[in-house]
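Support request from a user on the community tier.

User writes: "When I paste my structure tokens into the form, the page sometimes reloads and wipes my input. The last time it worked, I copied everything first. Here is what I submitted, just in case something in the input itself triggers the reload:"
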């Protein structure tokens, strides 16, 4: 099972206190987390700043080490996630506009439910 992971999902540990991979382990039996190169680039760019967002992006960048980085034709992170979703069982994101785009394509998402738990949505 393949699970695409978006930028904001990788930043959830700092921004929302979510233990991302523990939650994915709880929800899914066996999976491969995949991240598009454009998400890695976005995390690199965001981590160069200051404040909580930069810290969250830096932690997210470290979490990428637990994922398989893949290339896509899209340069923009959300477009890359949509492209990658065609080959994945789920997408982990809390980004509402992206979730709407995925819903139109009948892609199941995993997003934040409650304070620090993830849930599968359709």
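"...and here is what came back when it finally went through:"
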């Amino acid at each position: 099972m393949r699970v695409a992971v978006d930028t904001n999902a990788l930043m959830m540990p700092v921004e929302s206190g979510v233990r991302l991979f523990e939650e994915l382990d709880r929800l899914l039996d066996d999976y491969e987390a995949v991240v598009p190169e454009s998400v890695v680039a976005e995390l690199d760019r965001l981590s160069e700043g200051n404040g909580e967002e930069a810290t969250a992006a830096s932690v997210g960048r470290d979490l990428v080490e637990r994922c398989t980085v893949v290339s896509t034709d899209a340069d923009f992170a959300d477009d890359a996630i949509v492209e990658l979703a065609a080959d994945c069982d789920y997408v982990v994101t809390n980004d509402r506009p992206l979730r709407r785009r995925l819903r139109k394509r009948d892609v199941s998402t995993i997003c934040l439910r409650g304070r620090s738990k993830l849930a599968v949505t359709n």
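Agent notes: The reload is a front-end session timeout and is unrelated to the input. The chain has one domain: 2-121. The mean pLDDT is 94. Escalated to web team.
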